[in-house]
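Q: Can I see a sequence and its folded structure?
A: Here is a first one.
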Amino acid sequence: MGAEQREDWSEAQRLYRKVAKASPRHAPTFQRLGLIALHQGRPEDAVREFRRSLSIEPADPVCLNNLGNVLRESGKYRGSVAAYSKALGFKPDYPNALYNLAGTLELLGEHSQAADTYRRLLNLMPDDAEAWNALGLSLLENGREAEAKRALKEALRCKPNDASLLSELGVVHQFEGNLEEAGRLYLASIAADPGFARAYENLVRSRRMTSEDLALTEAIGKIANDESRDDESRLIACFALGKIYDDWGNHDQAFESYARGNALKRKTVNFNAAEHSAWVDRVVHQYDENFFSVHSGQGDPSTRPVFVIGMIRSGTSLVEQILASHSQVHGAGELLEITKLATNLPAALGTSLEYPDCIQKLSAAVIDETAGKYLGYLTERNGRAFRVVDKLPTNFLHLGLIATLLPNARIIHCRREPLDVCLSIFFQRFAQGHFYAYDFNDIAAYYAEYERLMAHWKKVLPVQVLDIRYETLLDDFEGQSRRMVNYCELDWEEACLAFHHSKRPVRTASSWQVRQPLYRTAMARWKKFEPHLEQLKTALSDRGVRWGLME
């Protein structure tokens, strides 16, 4: 143990190897060797040592938990879940395994199962603020805002005046449209920790900033300019400053702040435009006219799903809010189910081919089973509505799969001036994903692939896609709204024109905007920032994207 305490991992490994040679059936020795391998950055060796330990003592929950941890760190989430579940089979009241299992289920997007697991943990540890917080966030992901609020309040009971918990509770209120209470909680979070950048960002996103917010700007600026702080806090502060200056009409200062935030964010992400383009090539190749001819007449005939797709920041939240204001429509928000079904399709087909290449092995039975899973999930979210809107913009990547599974689904494609879309993306800090969003060249590359893929779908899809232009929607709001409602085969309701009065939760970056009456200030917004857009214009033009046409 002395070598381990000194963190002399090579010496510790040598000594444990001697023990293993002398006592080859001593399971704890191999578990120690696995942990040492982890310290040395050798995860595959760690897995091998843990498995050897388990071959001797298969009912060791600690070793199973360790195996689950290294599998999760290696991105093998399903194997990780199996290891944690097995550990809990031997020791049901094992807090570490419960917490790790719940967190891994979150990574897999299985929020309902994660919430159930957090509840099991909280039965053992009812005063664990972190577990209550995690439960609240899991419930929020599953569209259960009221339960999420209760869980976050329990977290605050365990950890009163915690800045992060106050801010997260504010986010739930903002999603529900209770902007006044959200603002109060954000200010309470700032009072609890004046250096907590995320609370400032949430506050700035919850309303339009005015000249009365000058003191707020100074506080955020201190965080943004403090090089002793971590990059994450600084970049969050930069995006918040950009929003304030933007609201004030100080466009040069706004762009400078956004650019600083994007530069810091780029250090933490990596987008490979060539890899993404190659993936789109594979989608185009696999989903050809022959594929749809072979699978004609298959899939579930349900007409419940309505998919609202397009580039992010193209008006998808507004379109969903209009439709969801109808009495027979439920707006389910941005669901990840189609992405998950596509990712899990190789396993369902029993093939090592990745998606989309695996679709050549699709059978009618697997199509029906996969469609049933999706429709079952919609029923979990809302079993009563005649139509359910899935507003994940990036489902445009999976329209081929959607049309195969659900040939009678409605698909509404939101389009907007490319410069406005790309600029709005650059001005947005995303909580996760969208790694292309922090550089004009990457944004332009991604946008060009979106246009290429949508052009392909228009050629080969056996379903009608309704195009809605953001600019036309603003110019002819009632006419375009009626067009969408008619496309969904619904009778017209005047409530669709009063979308901003809807009380439904909205869990997107546009949660504040869709609570406001229709406004036109976002149309041709790029002109206000035109002196800063030469790189973006060139990048789009070089990739064949035409801009400046949708004013």
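Q: Show me another, different protein.
A: A second, unrelated one:
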Amino acid sequence: MVKLNRALSGLLVAVALVAACRDPLMVQNYNNPQRTQVYARPGDVEALIYGSYRSMSNGTFGVDGIGPSARAMSWENASNLNNWGMGPRSAVPRTFIDNGRGNLYLNENLTEFNSQQRAARAAADGLNRLYAGLSLGSASQDARAKAFGWFVIGCGLTNVGLAYDSAAIPSPFDDLSYIPPLSSYTDVVAAALVAFDSALANTANATASFPLPTAWLNGNTTTQAQFRELIYSWKARARADVARDPTERAAVNWTEVHNDAARGLSADFRITVGGGSGWTAQTNNQWYLFQQWTQVNQLIAGMADVSGSYETWLRAWPNGTPFVVLTPDLRWPQGASRAAQQAASPAVPTGRLYFRNRTGADSPADPWSSFYDWYRMKAWADANYTGPYPVFVKAQNDLLLAEAHLRLPTPDIAEAARLIDLTRVPNGLPALVGQVATLNDPVPGGGSCVPRVPTRATSPRATVCGNILEAMKWEYRMETMYLSWISQYFASRGWGDLPEGTPIHWPVPYQEMDARRHPFYNMGGVGRTGGAVGVGTYGF
């Protein structure tokens, strides 16, 4: 092969050699086996299909590609380091994503695009053989494999459709040598929803073959009902998070989000990783150096504060200094001083604690530095990053359902409040039920309300008690932090929270564009294509 780079990404890497024979300027590679022959044995096809989920999962939770900078851009964490673009991409004013050849983050920009497109294509190829007449041994086994393969296609397309502005849509009904063109993110996510529906339809004919083998979703003997719940939660997330701005988020079919989330997860979904299993999550142990990489952004941490220090810090921004957050929220260390909070931050969190007030040296992440680290999964990290890791928590599904209730043509404030209270009340915050009657009512608590959110005013900056939507967003941030693949970035752009100019998605990596012989392009920046337009919700 002389015209396609060996680093071909996405779908091209899977089919380029077969397609090459169509180009008279290319030399066919006779060392490449015919894929129809490779996929001729039932066991191999089944392994291809169920292995595609592991590829999809490892390609998001097990790598550090665009995730670190997306988290920094959405204030999920703060760091001044150049690694993965965290510091440069979290700076205000926001700059564009450089997608030129030789850019500093060319590998990071490519990683998830590549992995998600490959995983979806592998699942589609396996399904192709089943729809061509290959059987795994029984109609029930065939239906189970079809359900699982369609599920993986839906997951891979959802991930790439949420993160990038366009991608290819593989289909089991295409020839194995076919290279799909790039489609817009809206079309990609629409195709993901069709795939999820196909997965649900096939589960009905696979009853005898459930629960799923443990190896398919590692550590889980997933029942038919549990698998359907997982698919519905993925559907709800895809529908809501495809939005790139508040206008698109408002235009989401929230009735459908409601219908999907209402049938979604009834418990956290966890994947067992590490221990030589071949399944990974956050394998880069740099994430557990805390203050250097993942200290909590002061803008978010401050929303828990009831002392007034948050507003003082905002008014001094970008020259404010870290402060002690005094809050009734039990996910944060309690105490009236830093020393008291450090004493209340054990080496491994206990009770409801998600965050610690760190001991030892602080590392600057100006202007977002804080004293706080997220360490909810510290026991898992201390166990050599081995064991069950929550990759889709029930709370995320519940809060998507709550948002749907708030955005329905006739909002159901009471039901949204009930759902938000599921995590809010056990963590020490006053109930919304019976206290919030309209979308604009402030959360209860008066001067001690949580969350206390910045307004759009910038001179001087000010804060107010959040409304029920902000209460939902607060719980979403607390409960999904690092447990859902860059979900706070996806949701924040739809909520309109990102600072002006923040890239609202990544461009298709230049490597893929080169392979397709298309021009590549950049994305985002103030006043540029693909940048968040106007000042965000919190005045940045």
